[in-house]
Amino acid sequence: MTRPITAGVDGSEESLAALAWAAREAVRRGLALRVVHAWRFQPHDAIDAGDPDTQGQWVREGLEGAARAVTERHPGLDVTTDVLHGAPVETLVAAAADAEMLVLGSRGHGTVVGFLLGSVGQQVIAEAKSPVVLVRAGDQASAEAAGREIVVGQQGDADDSAAALRFAFETAAARGATVRAVRAWTLPPLFAYSPASLKLLDEAGGLEPYEKKALGEALRPWRERFPDVHVVEHVEMGSAGQVLLSVAGRTQLMVVGRRAHRTAVGARIGSVAHGVLHHADCPVAVVPHD
């Protein structure tokens, strides 16, 4: 069964930008769009917030109005709406499990601050089993103009980055865009030089050729699967977050991976994804992997 693209909407400017992005992506991929609002009754002493029935009606009307605006722009798009009753994190994580991706909005104040992730956004990204895309308020369709790339971070071996690469190639294929695959590397500490690692480096001709070979091997199956997608291989010395952000100016979407397993302190976003989310001025997709 084909899963929809799901957009979380709460009436804010950033969530409406996320909805517009999700609708365009659904049209490109030929998928349905599900628009959801995570809601529970919130009484307020200072203002007349209405009773549960009244507040629920306001939520439904707002959700239906947002969906109508989408169908007016995309008449052939299959759009459904759902009010999800419960705590925001739990309901959005559950919605993501049934979706091809979950798209959320996030406030931003220029390229220095980037995304402002509240506790809900951070927890949803850390817990979701499907990719989560963050879209800033003010994001426009013109930002997806021809010539701008889908940038994806590749780390570790081919299996470590397979989920992020798949997402990037699928997105690029749907848009006719170029994939820029970025692999950052740093000099390892002296104690990391074991006889086995030295042998591998010697066979590859040094550190940088070794990193280029590793990136090429990770990309090979995706090049074969998507032969029409143009690929730029980008290997650069530096921290992964810094290297990814250095190319963000020509990016229409940044794709980064996140380990899906929980640690002793709970689920975490990861340092690379955290840095990109807080400083990139383009939409960012965080893709979980094992």
From TrEMBL:
Top-level taxon in the UniProt lineage: Bacteria
Family indicated by similarity: Belongs to the universal stress protein A family.
Signal peptide: none
The organism of origin for this protein: Streptomyces regalis
Residue ranges of every copy of the UspA domain listed in the record: 1-136, 150-288
Protein name stated in the entry: Universal stress protein
